[in-house]
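re: ur question from earlier - yeah i can do the single chain one, its not a big deal. heres the input i used so u can compare w yours
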Amino acid sequence: MSYLKKMQLNTRLLIIILTTAIILIVFGLYLTGDSYTSSISQQSEKSSELLTSASFVDLPPDEIVEKLIAVTNDGNMEKISDSKQNSVYTTQKGDIRITKENTNSDYSQFVDYSIHGKENAIPKDQAEIFADYVFGQIGYKRDGSEWVDMTDFGNRKEIVIQQRKDGWIIENEMHRFNFQNDMTSIQIGHWYTNLDAFEIKYSQDDAKKIAYDFIQSKINSDSRLREMNLEISYPEYTQMKILQDHLVYGISGIYPHIEIQVDTHSGNIVNADLIKISGKEMWGCASIGVSRLTAQDIAKMQKMGELLYFELTDDDLKQLPILEEMIDTTNSRTEYNDRVALPISIPEWNDYDNFIKEKFKEQHETYYKTDLQNIHILYNDKRYGVYYNENYPDTPLWVESFPDNFDYEQKTITILGNELANHAPKIKEAINMMGTWEVSVWNSTSILENEQQRYQEYLHQKTIEKYGSDPEQYVSIFYYDGSYYEPSFAIC
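and the output i got, formated as tokens:
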């Protein structure tokens, strides 16, 4: 075969190979095209379920403070406290508190800034200009759709700014400015940048039905709840909120004090305010508690006057089973004192205070004023709190023992036995007195509000039976099976 023919053959072969490769590539793209498009679509849909906030409130606390004091020509920032709940700073003109997100509530991280003094306060006639200026400096862009409530109370002027979505006010993200002659206060929450483009797929009527069906399913699946014959209403009220970047409807009116939060985009239940009782789920925010009183408690009461009480029997407690359960729980354990208060002179406390400050300097590179106000010491491998409370002039020195399994944020100083004896002997004396006398035992549990009301009325009737319909003093103590108890009732 000639060289030319070989070249022609090779060229045709190369064309065939290239053509085949191109066909395979194109066909491959065709085959994978749906999958690729679907993936992008899914990612887009997933991202659109969440709102995007401007970065200011989510910055590290130090950066938030630096930005704010730059806006107001403030300075000299000093962090005086830092915990899981909040970070607190003082500045030349005032103070700043950054409250961190609470995942158990509607509230996300927000900032409170107070400017003190007539010379620093922003005049009322500059309120609107100042609010707009602050928003611009921290990157919060307004488009005119916001709800703005401006009120002049005479001695102060208030501006409240909230974002809106399709006419709904975002109730739990509020930005508030207060202007007084000697103070200006600013509260800043989150500001969402994609709220206008966010797609709401479920109406408030959809959300009400979802919330109602959710409650009904809880009742139908729990025999304990069915036995209570709960009076459930179809929901009446709706608010719009933002919870962890989800735009939600807050649905209420189903049962007192309960709000079911439904995602506006997915229709999912985001949060349902459920309280766990003995492994079961029950809604409500009422509770009942019982304290078993000690002989020392009774003696203190008798010193103040006649001890007023009524008696309960086993038959009574059959009508009050949760109260009986609380009594049994309190009687299942005995507790002893974990705090001691002692007298101390001011000069003596000042010596203790100086010693403690020196220990902080030795053991910590940084610490805050709050560490010196609520002092935590480690002594013999156990943690104690030491406080000086001038409101108790007879016993201003308080020492408290802390549980070993608690997660403490407070900075601690370690003090050796001989150091405590030599430099703070009364603190050592208080520690030695821990666990030397019995204290009252208290226990509580959640209860439905209508049941709480029934319990209160039953106990009040026992008071009337003994002291008449209008006793001179409120009677809360009852006697049962050889012990005195004091019930307590709480509600949100």
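The chain has four domains: 56-188, 204-274, 286-335+439-491, 338-436. not sure if urs matches, ping me
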